[in-house]
TrEMBL record:
Keyword terms of this UniProt record: FAD, Flavoprotein, Oxidoreductase
Keyword hit for Flavoprotein: yes
Domain FAD-binding PCMH-type stretches: 3-179
Highest taxon above the source species: Bacteria
Region spans: Disordered: 183-206
Species in which this protein is naturally found: Paenibacillus pasadenensis
Name the UniProt record assigns to this protein: Xanthine dehydrogenase, FAD binding subunit
Entries under PANTHER family matching the protein: XANTHINE DEHYDROGENASE SUBUNIT C-RELATED
Bias (Low complexity): 196-205
Enzyme Commission (EC) number: 1.17.1.4
Broad class of enzyme this protein falls into: oxidoreductase
InterPro entries noted in UniProt: CO_DH_flav_C (IPR005107), CO_DH_flav_C_dom_sf (IPR036683), Diverse_Substr_Oxidored (IPR051312), FAD-bd_PCMH (IPR016166), FAD-bd_PCMH-like_sf (IPR036318), FAD-bd_PCMH_sub2 (IPR016169), Mopterin_DH_FAD-bd (IPR002346)
Coiled-coil ranges per UniProt: none
GO molecular-function terms, A-Z: FAD binding; xanthine dehydrogenase activity
Length: 350
């Protein structure tokens, strides 16, 4: 461990997770984990959080930034991997939904410092809806061992007001592409995949219910279809075109894209944005699948997803957008994603 004398907080730089945990205990959990520091710094500057007396710098811990495919075809990403490193890693090419979400976080300078672990541990990062739609599993260190927990379960705890997380996030794992569990994983693989992204200007009355958000919004849409029939979509609405956290973001993954209503249809929907932890939209998924099975009509499935998402999604309002605007916006984005996915029209807008 190295220890740095600074004018500000005491900076502790452990070399292993075990050492990090011991140091956290020694300081009565007042030692705050810091990865890239990009979110923490804005929180200190905005007065959301007081700078701590002790900082636990995780960047020197060996192996924590590794990104690699696993023998079962899953992808394991160490919590200290930067957003840029995940974007550039050849191993992440099979998970285009995650890449698209990361590409729309902040700007390159911030992505070069900010980590995926910091984005996840914040419980409000824009990567989270995509990770939810990909059935991500978190790996936590609690001082004794590494333990897995589904991202969805962890976020539900946060939404229910669980005490601040004390464990250290070691990694996140994405299941292998190739079916419902792998969500849209293979959509970026070579051979028949179509993928792309676009930007659109959307007024605050963009079908999400007028007047809930201050000023005009910028929207990012991307998605793609794969030869295996899987599809994915990513939607982010922010207060400006880039360099800004989402007011609303929605991730979707499903299949098969054609024929519409084919047996074995599956769907993942998740929404986030603002200060409430993101949420998997299970009611909307079930409603859309039931409508698709009953009618074979993607438009009916989209309408069913819209109605159910309005009921189940519970975002928080703030000075920038009220909760009702976010809810309606998310329901519209989810419906659009469902319709585009199942009609294989994800590329039309681009
Ligand atoms: C200009 C600007 C634009 C931004 N735009 C976006 C945006 O569009 N979307 C978005 O989501 N974010 C945005 N951010 C916020 C931030 O850059 C990202 O969320 C980034 O991924 C955070 O990662 P970090 O490594 O910097 O986290 P840090 O700031 O180091 O930490 C964030 C939180 O996670 C905890 N933490 C970090 N690592 C661990 C770990 N391994 N175990 C346990 N706890 C841990 C920290 O204690 C802290 O509470 C923006 C920031 C700036 C400055």
């Amino acid at each position: 461990m190295s220890l740095k004398e600074t004018a500000g907080p005491l900076l502790l730089q452990p070399a292993t997770l075990e050492e990090a945990w011991r140091l956290r205990w020694r300081h009565g959990f007042a030692a705050l984990p810091v990865a890239g520091g990009t979110l923490l710094r804005t929180q200190w500057e905005n007065g959301v959080l007081a700078p701590p007396s002790v900082l636990l710098d995780l960047r020197r811990i060996g192996g924590l930034a590794d990104i690699g495919p696993q023998p079962d075809g899953s992808l394991r990403i160490g919590s200290q991997a930067t957003l840029s490193a995940v974007l550039k890693a050849p191993a992440s090419a099979g998970w285009p939904l995650l890449r698209e979400a990361l590409r729309m976080i902040a700007a390159p300078g911030v992505r070069n410092l900010g980590t995926l672990g910091g984005n996840i541990a914040s419980a409000v990062g824009d990567s989270l809806p995509a990770l939810l739609a990909l059935d991500a599993e978190l790996e936590w260190y609690d001082g004794a061992s590494l333990a897995g927990q589904s991202l969805e379960a962890w976020l539900e705890e946060r939404r229910a007001g669980a005490a601040p997380e004390r464990r250290l996030l070691a990694a996140v794992t994405l299941p292998a592409p190739g079916g419902a569990a792998g969500a849209a994983g293979a959509a970026g693989e070579a051979g028949g995949a179509s993928e792309g992204s676009g930007r659109a200007r959307a007024a605050s009355g963009n079908g999400a219910g007028a007047g809930g958000a201050e000023g005009a919004c910028a929207a990012d849409f991307s998605g793609g279809h794969a030869s295996g029939g899987r599809w994915h979509a990513w939607r982010k609405i922010g207060r400006r075109e880039s360099f800004t956290p989402a007011l609303v973001c929605v991730a979707a993954a499903g299949g098969p894209a054609a024929p519409v209503g084919a047996p074995g249809a599956w769907l993942r929907l998740a929404a986030g944005g603002g200060s409430a932890p993101p949420q998997r939209l299970r009611l909307a998924e079930r409603a859309a699948l039931a409508a698709l099975a009953a009618s074979g009509d993607a438009a009916r499935a989209a309408a069913a997803a819209f109605e159910a998402a309005l009921t189940e999604y519970a975002p928080a309002g703030d000075a920038f957008a009220d909760a009702d605007y976010r809810r309606r916006c998310a329901a519209n984005l989810a419906a659009a994603a469902v319709w585009e996915g199942w009609t294989a029209r994800g590329g039309e807008r681009r």
